[in-house]
Amino acid sequence: MSEPAERPTPASVLFAAGVVYTAMAAAALLWLWGRDRLQQLPLRAVGEHGLPAAAGLGLATGVGAALLLALASRRSAGLARCEGRIAAMLGPLSEGQVVALATTAAIAEELFFRLAVLDAIGPLLAVACYAALNTGPGFWPWLPVAMLFAGAATALMQAGFGLLSATTAHALVNYLVLRRILPT
């Protein structure tokens, strides 16, 4: 009988996440550059409604989404299992590690999906791509969550609130969910 695999250390989890998210952010920038669309980054960073509106709506969306997800996971055994798998994969993380992971993931994913992918293929396919890449075997109950969040973040971008709103919402959801599900 084989011995159970050791849980990765928090440092190795964060290193792997850093590699993946750095590659994702680089891919977004290269994709924009290769299509001569890199100017979209400064144009869509804050959005047309200004910094306070973008940040405020991002905060409200993030808190609202995290609250809805907490309620949904209490009512859905499938969502609770998904969160349990995520918690088991990550293990206990310090406050700083949670902030680093939540922020890095949000920045990279929003650059990729809400800027590069959205710019290249449009809102419906961008939502579908995000949802597909955030689910998979063992995580199918997460599909509606991924679709709803991608739809909300895409709507923020389409309404002119920029990457700041979507990234703020994403980072806040990541942080609040990780604080709720990870062992301390």
Total E-strand runs = 0
The number of distinct helices, counting runs of at least 4 residues, comes to 8
| Low-pLDDT ranges | none
- The shape, in one word, is globular
Find the structural class using helix and strand composition. mainly alpha
Walk me through the topology.
Elements: H1 10-34, H2 40-44, H3 51-75, H4 77-90, H5 95-121, H6 123-133, H7 143-158, H8 162-181
Helix pairs in contact: 1-5, 3-4, 3-7, 3-8, 5-6, 5-8, 6-7, 7-8
Task: Briefly characterize the structure.
This protein has helices spanning 10-34, 40-44, 51-75, 77-90, 95-121, 123-133, 143-158, 162-181. The protein has 184 residues and is mainly alpha-helical. The radius of gyration is 17 Å and the shape is globular.
Highlighted features:
single chain, 184 residues, mainly alpha, 78% helix
Overview of the structural elements:
The protein has 184 residues and is mainly α. The chain has one domain. Helix content is 78%, strand content 0%. The chain is built from 8 helices and no strands. Helix 5 runs antiparallel to helix 6. The longest helix has 27 residues, at 95-121. The chain is globular.
